[in-house]
Amino acid sequence: MRLRRGRTLALSLPRRLVCDVLHFSRNAPSVPMQRRMRLAELVAARNAWPRRLSWCAIFLKGYAQVTAERPELRRAYLRFPWPRLYEHPENVASFAVEREYEGEAGLFFARVNRPERLSLARLDALVRHYKCAPIDAIASYRRALRLTRLPRPVRRSLWWLGLELDGMFRACLFGTLAVSAAASRGAAGLHVLSPLTTTLNYSPFEPDGSIDVRITYDHRVVDGGAVADALVRLEAVLSTSILDELRAGPRDGFASGAPRLVRLAEPVLAESHGGDGLPLKPR
Predict the structure, then answer these.
(1) Cα 24 to Cα 28: distance, rounded to the nearest angstrom
(2) Contact between 158 and 175 (Cβ < 8 Å)
(3) Distance of CA 203 to the CA centre of its chain
(4) What is the pLDDT of residue 251?
(5) Alpha helices, H only, 133-205
(6) What is the mean pLDDT of residues 241-255?
(7) Using one digit for the tens of pLDDT, what is the confidence trace for 107-138?
(8) Sign of torsion, CA 275 276 278 283?
């Protein structure tokens, strides 16, 4: 049988961005750790809201509370000019967002400062903003696309400098923690690759409210015992302070719909002076 020839496709900008992320992720000797959590009460409290919050916002705030308490989770391994650890004083959270760009689905990475200090309604508004606002209206997306247009040697040199040279620049450009999940698609990654020290992901919920939550961590920075303790603490946070906030019901005009949600996000986004929830000092 004669085989048909396929076609060659140039790498799109979103594909280049993912390739760069994976290129630098391979430098981190990462290990995944998982805990089965029982969160039926949390699921019920979320379902009671007139407009359901995204699980990304809920887990983002819960995990940020844990990392705010545990400095070792805000550390990063830097190799240049000598191997050392850098500890950032506060959280800068990064989360993956799938967006369509020039007819192709691609991943972009949104960031927000100190998510543990925001209400769930405001965090949800930010997540929706990054998912729905025009790509050209989001400063971090525009910068990522500009960087990805550069020739590979140039852009990877810039990536390397951002990740290895200075801890403050690294935290502000890439974040101190990450959340990446495909649970809304009915699946979960088993070992999420990331250049950051810890990345949280989770499975879809079971009917009884149980869920598998994983943290992939850089073993050069933190050991398994600390990550296991962080998962235990995360379950406690979700079952106490996050649950209490959900049970308190919608606030900040959350029930009034999407236009109000966008207005809720505006004060947080304005802090960046660039529309993406991060101070621009180190950028």
Answers:
(1) 8
(2) no
(3) 15
(4) 66
(5) 139-148, 152-164, 167-174
(6) 80
(7) 999 999 999 999 999 999 999 999 999 999 99
(8) negative
Q: 3-state SS of the chain: helix, strand, coil percent to 5?
A: 45, 20, 35
What is the rounded CA–CA span in Å between residue 129 and residue 142?
Answer: 15
Which of 112, 99, 102 is CA-nearest to residue 149?
Answer: 102
Block residue for tokens 């004060």: 267
Residue 228 is encoded by which pair of tokens?
A: 């296991």
Residues 6+ apart with CB under 8 A from 165: 78, 80
Domains and CATH numbers, the chain: 13-270 (3.30.559.10)
Mean pLDDT of the 203-224 span:
97
| Cross-strand pairs, 78 | 84
Q: Which DSSP category does 203 fall into?
A: P
Pull the structure tokens for residue 27: 């430098």
| β-strand pairing of 177-179 with 92-101 | parallel
Q: Single out the residue of 40, 48, 55, 46 nearest to residue 209, CA to CA.
A: 40
Task: Name the one residue in this structure whose structure tokens are 């506060």.
Answer: 90
CA distances from 20 to 25, 37, 152, 193, 199 (A): 9, 33, 9, 12, 17
